[in-house]
Every structure is written in C-alpha cells, then in structure tokens.
Design brief:
- This protein is an all-alpha fold.
- The chain has eleven helices and no strands.
- Helix 5 runs antiparallel to helix 6 (117-128) and helix 10 runs antiparallel to helix 11 (208-222).
Length: 223
C-alpha cells in the first residue's frame, strides 16, 4: 500500500536523474529539469517586472504593453515565431521598463528554442552585461546564459562568471550554487562536486526542490 507521503512522480524523477548521470549526460539533465527551477524564477521576475513597468508610466501605456506582451506569449505558445518576434521587438524598443526586460529575456528564449544554444547564451549574456537593467534581471540572465553554455563553455570560466551570484544576499544564490556544483562535476572534480551538493542539500534556506535534487545527485556521485 502506498503511504500518504509517497510521491511516485518524484521517485520516477530521481530514477531518471540516476540514469542520466550514469550515461554521462548531466548537462542534458539540467536543461531537461532546470525549467522547474527557472519556472519559479520567471514567476518572480514577472511580478517584479510588472512593478517596474508601473513606475512613472500612465495606466494606458501599461495596459497596451501588457496586451502586447500577452499576444507575444500567445504567439510563442502557438509556435508563431514571426508574430512573437515582432511583438517582442516592439516591446524591447518602446515598452515600459519591466515589459522591455521581459521581452529581451523572451527574445533570448526564442533563440534557445530554435536550437541555437550558443546564440541564446550570447543573448542572455548581453542582457546580463547591460548596466541600465536592474541587477536582479541581469543576474537571472547570467544564470540562463550559463545554463545554455554548459555544452560548449569552459567549466572554469563559467564558474568564475557566476561565482559572485552565490553570495548570501543574492536571490539567485541557490540556483547559482547548483550550477557551480554541476560545473565542478563537468570539470572532473567529483570530490568538490559532492561536497557542494551536500552543502546545498543541508542548507535549510534553499528551496525544497533544490535540496532534494542536490541530495540525490550527491548520493549518486558518491557511489
């Protein structure tokens, strides 16, 4: 009989993690499951962006931007890339601050969706390097750039690129720490990777999903 606290989907999830790791395709694994972690970030970003878009602009303009952004997302969901690209370009150029930033992030996302991981990484990095953009969005873009550079980037360089994001004051620190652990594994430093994953798994301030994933990966790498 299944206990009330058992979760068959989670069990299946971890079995897939085990299999992916044993096939030495951890970068593929991150891309496959990273969306769950990033999904939370996107919800947060959207909330902050809506507030940023509100400041200093009248209701009419914000409403127009909101409608245009919604149409872009709808076009993306229907694989109408040209329509989405056009709407996002308009928002990037003329949209209020929050919607302009979201448009840029989605433009980079469309590049990734086309299969061009290198181009997507560069697009996200461009956002991260834009000092006119709020730091919280720049840091998120840096996280996403690193994710899309896992297959082609140098692990040491990528680690150095996101090292400052693991500071206790950074809202993306737990995601950054998971990436740093992954990069340690990719560089062949299994001992360091295990230690980093264990520290993340034991961190009560980290989201439950990240802690569970870190504990499972640590156990697998220790075998």
């Amino acid at each position: 009989m299944m206990m009330a606290d058992q979760n068959p989907e989670k069990d299946s999830f971890f079995k897939e993690i085990d299999e992916e790791l044993r096939q030495e395709s951890y970068a593929k694994l991150w891309k496959k499951y990273g969306k769950y972690l990033i999904g939370i970030a996107v919800i947060f970003v959207a909330s902050v962006a809506a507030y940023q878009g509100w400041k200093g602009y009248d209701l009419s303009r914000r409403s127009n931007d909101s409608a245009l952004y919604a149409s872009a997302l709808n076009a993306i969901s229907q694989n109408k890339t040209n329509d989405a690209t056009s709407a996002l370009a308009r928002l990037t150029k003329d949209g209020t601050t929050g919607y302009s930033i979201l448009a840029q992030l989605n433009q980079a996302g469309l590049i990734a969706r086309s299969g061009d991981a290198t181009g997507a990484a560069a697009a996200y990095l461009s956002i991260a390097n834009d000092t006119k953009i709020n730091e919280i969005f720049r840091d998120l873009a840096l996280i996403l750039s690193t994710m899309h550079n896992l297959d082609n980037g140098d692990p040491v360089e990528l680690t150095n690129q996101i090292q400052h994001l693991i500071l206790p004051s950074n809202p993306w620190r737990h995601t950054a720490r998971e990436l740093v652990a992954l990069l340690a594994k990719k560089s062949g430093n299994i001992k360091q990777a295990v230690q980093l994953y264990k520290e993340l798994a034991d961190d009560v301030t980290a989201p439950a999903g990240i802690r569970a994933r870190a504990a499972e990966v640590s156990a697998i790498l220790s075998n």
